[in-house]
Structure formats: structure tokens, C-alpha cells
Amino acid sequence: MKVFVTSMFFILGILNCNSQSHSKLNDIHPDKEFENILVKALSSDSLSSSFIIWIKEMVKAHKHLMHTEQVYVLEGTGMMQLGDSTYLVSSGSYIYIQKNTVHSVKVTSDTPMKVLSIQSPKFIGKDRHFIE
């Protein structure tokens, strides 16, 4: 429990460290229809990028060669592949993904999974390598 609480304070600290950005994650909703995945950028600088991501079905197996990723599940449930292990994730789950680690998720809930994703360093979309 202590690790989880510490992680939450860390995540909240990241969101509030930029005086020009403040978000209540529960108040962020999709602003358009989407087929499987919708990404909304929250903030970004040279050190990190944070996003809210909604997933209806799945995210295919991929890895980041230059980035670490932290994922906090806000809503929904799913089966998360992380390296050679698979985990049931749900609201409140925290996942730390080291660079070069293959990861994917298959949504198991009737509603889309909503996650906070924080990537470090700044993510500009070029470091996603899908696994066949």
C-alpha cells in the first residue's frame, strides 16, 4: 500500500509541477468518437510527456527503445503483457515499463480502459516499435 500511495503522490506531483497546467483526471473525457485508441496529450517538456489514453479493444505488443513508461489505470480492466508476464489490471493499477520491454494490453471490460501514461524523456511518437 505504501508503494501505491507514494506512486500516486509522484504522479500527482508530475501533473501539478508545471504551474501552467492543472487537470482533474476524472473530468477528462473523449472529445470525439474513436475506433480503438484515443490519445489526449496533457503536458510535455524535454524530460517527459503525459497523456490520457482510452482503449476500447487492445494495444498491440510493442516496445520503446529510448523511453520508460509509467501507466496508471483510471477506469476499466484488462490483461497487460509486460515482458514474459501477464497481469490483470484495473482501476488503481500502476505499471512501470522499462525501455526495451515488450508490452501490450487487451481490454476485458465492457467500457474502454482509461489510463494515464507518462513517458520519459519527451515522447514525440517515433519510439514505438511493434512486435510481430
Q: If you had to describe this structure to a student in words, what would you say it looks like?
A:
By secondary structure, the chain is mostly beta strands. Helix content is 11%, strand content 45%. The strands form two sheets. The chain has a five-stranded antiparallel beta sheet with strand order 1-2-9-4-7, covered by helices on one side. The longest helix is centred in the first third of the chain and has 15 residues, at 2-16.
Give the helix/strand layout.
Layout: H1 2-16, E1 37-44, E2 49-55, E3 58-63, E4 68-75, E5 77-82, E6 85-90, E7 94-97, E8 103-107, E9 113-120, E10 129-130
Key features?
single chain; about 130 residues; mainly beta; 5-stranded antiparallel β-sheet; about 10% helix; about 45% strand; globular; disordered N terminus
Strand content: over 45%
Report the end-to-end length measured between terminal Cα atoms.
Answer: 37 Å
Strands, total number: 10
- Structural class assignment: mainly beta
Please state the oligomeric state of the protein chains shown.
single chain
Biggest sheet strand line-up: 1-2-9-4-7
Report the sheet with the most strands, covering strand number, pairing sense and barrel closure: 5 strands, antiparallel
Mean pLDDT: 86
Enumerate the spans where pLDDT stays under 50 for 5 or more consecutive residues.
1-19
The number of helices is 1
Helical content class = 10-25%
**Radius of gyration in whole Å, from Cα?**
14 Å
Shape: globular
How would you spell out the order of helices and strands?
Answer: HEEEEEEEEEE
